[in-house]
Every structure is written in structure tokens, then in C-alpha cells.
Automatic annotation (TrEMBL):
The lineage of its organism: Bacteria, Pseudomonadati, Bacteroidota, Flavobacteriia, Flavobacteriales. This is Glycosyltransferase. Keywords: Glycosyltransferase, Transferase. InterPro entries: Glyco_trans_1 (IPR001296), Glyco_trans_4-like_N (IPR028098). GO terms for molecular function: glycosyltransferase activity. The keyword Amino-acid biosynthesis does not apply. Residues 14-168 form the Glycosyltransferase subfamily 4-like N-terminal domain. It comes from Autumnicola lenta. SUPFAM superfamilies: UDP-Glycosyltransferase/glycogen phosphorylase. Residues 184-324 form the Glycosyl transferase family domain.
Amino acid sequence: MKILQLIHKPQNRGAETFACQISGHLKALGHQVKIVAIFEGNATLPYEGEIICLNASQGNRFLDLRGWRKLSKIISSYQPNVVQANAGDTLKYAVFSKIIFDWKAPILFRNASEVGRYLTSPFQKRYNSFLYRKIDWVASVSGVSERDLLEHFPFLKGKTEIIPIGLEIKKQESLVRLKPFSVKHIVHVGGFSFEKNHKGLLRILSLILEKVPQVHLHLVGDGPLKEEIELEVKKMKLESHVSFYGFVNNPLAFIDAADVLVLPSIIEGLPGVILEGMYCKTPVVAYNVGGISEIVNGDTGILVEKNEEQKFAEGVLKSINQPENVRIDNAYRMVVKRYMNEDIALKFVNSYEKIVTDEE
């Protein structure tokens, strides 16, 4: 089959990285893949082929006739069997391009979060309802994401399934030694956005330091709120206990070197970083949001109800002082068995075949 993967832009974010990784596996299975980015970006994504850019204007993305036309020309030339829209503005561009320029390929939307969290007005719900009525299939990253979608848009019933995010098989080649050497290391990997809740993480760190002063927090990632969090660290006088790294090419090496991986997000779909922690056999502590409870439970990690910062701190301390090897091994086996991209690519192929058959 021919698959066109539509991504928001070349950026180091889970949706784009996963789309590129899956595309590599689809090609290995004998399918043809073309990746198209809506907006410009400067990240190097894990994909060996060309990534075509529409060079669309973000300021004009709600009425971008030029961008929709460029996408339609690519689709007309390539003649894909399926167009897969992967988060961001991709669904909007796919739907309006198809409506206005009348191309025929079915659209599969990859739902990687809880859409209901972003519907803040009746207009947004009506607008999204219009978009969702124009698609052929939805692959939700978790059971929670799927239920949230169907709760807000029940007309999609019968047109959704769960296909989780996955991992690549990786050999750890570049090792990281976290400093200072004499302390316990907490690692957080994620963009600096409100969903990731960095301010809450700093409050949790303060609670941990009251019990164990020999702890250091390593923040891996970049994003719009990074400067604000750097100022918050100074305000809370935590400079000697927090390090910032920006974007790194080898976050797995940081996770592997950590004593514990933390994810106190307030909104998530099914975060790949937790799977990476389990793959590295690093203890995981996370808030119970989105689909996290589908992978983190008493057998695989420590799950804390959202905003219970004291209990989160206690979970981190327990993971540092008394890591449970049985739990760590359970988590590793689960990831290897259920969340590797080689197998997940086959699930997407099954979906493509289903919607192509239905179209015929």
C-alpha cells in the first residue's frame, strides 16, 4: 500500500517521532510511505527518507487555501491508499484539503491525547465535530483517549480502535554519568509546556529535599515555558538541586542513568517516555492521568492521583530508597511483549487494510 503520513512539523515531539518510526517499519514491511510536514521545523527526525514541507503559515492555518492546495497536489501525484493525520493541525489540513480539492483517499486520525481537555467553548466542539465527521477511522493511543473521544463525539462509535505508542529496539551506546555523583538522581524528560506540570514537579522536589537532601533533578527537554521554569528554580532557591539540558539526542541514556523517572503531567495520552523508563529498568512514578494507568500500576511502577504532591514525593523516595526489582522486571517484560514498534506497525497495516476495503 501507499501511505501518506501528515505531521505538524519537524520537531522533537512524540507524535512526529512516532510517525517517523512507524513509517520506517511500514517500509520494511514492503509498503510505500511519504511523509509531509505542514509547517517548517529544524529538528532531525528518525526517518531516512525525505520529509516534504508544505511551508504553510501558522498565522493563516484556519484559512490556508494555498497550503490545502499544495497538499492536494502531493496527494494527486502520489495517489496514497490512506492519509494518516498525526496530531497538531494535521486533521484540519487533511479534511479541508479533501473537501475543497475533492481527493478520495480515506483519512485515519491518530488521537494521541484527551481531546476533551482542549474543548473550552461550544464553538470548538462544533468545529471539531465537523472535522471528525469527515474522517474514516481513529487510532487512539489508549483506552482513556478512546473513551474521551467517544464521550464528546459519540457518532464515531464503530470507527475507532486502540493502537498504543511503541518503542524502538535500542542498544544503549552512549552512556551518561549524572552529576553530582554522590546523590540520587531524578530524571524528567518532556517539553516545557503546561501539560507537563514542571512547577508542580519543583514543589514535589522541595518536599523530597525535606527528607533527603542528597537528591538532584535533571530536566531534559525544551519548550516555551523553559525560561519561566528556570526563573522558578531561582525563586525557590533550588539551583544547586536542578539541572537543565534542553533537547538531547539521547534521552534514553539519561533515563538509563537515573535512579527514578518521574512524570507529574496533568494531561497525557500514553507517554512513550514511561515505556522508555520501563525498557531501561528505571523505576517510574507518575500521575494517574490519560492512559498512564494502562501501563503503570502496582505491578509495574508507582501511580499517584493527580495533584497529590505529597504522595508523589513519597513514591519517589520509596523508589530511590527501596527499588523493587520484581516490579521493575514486570514493567520491562510488559514493554517488550506489548509495546514494540515492529508489532505496532502491523496493527496500523490492519487498520489501513480495513478502511481501504470499506472504501471499495
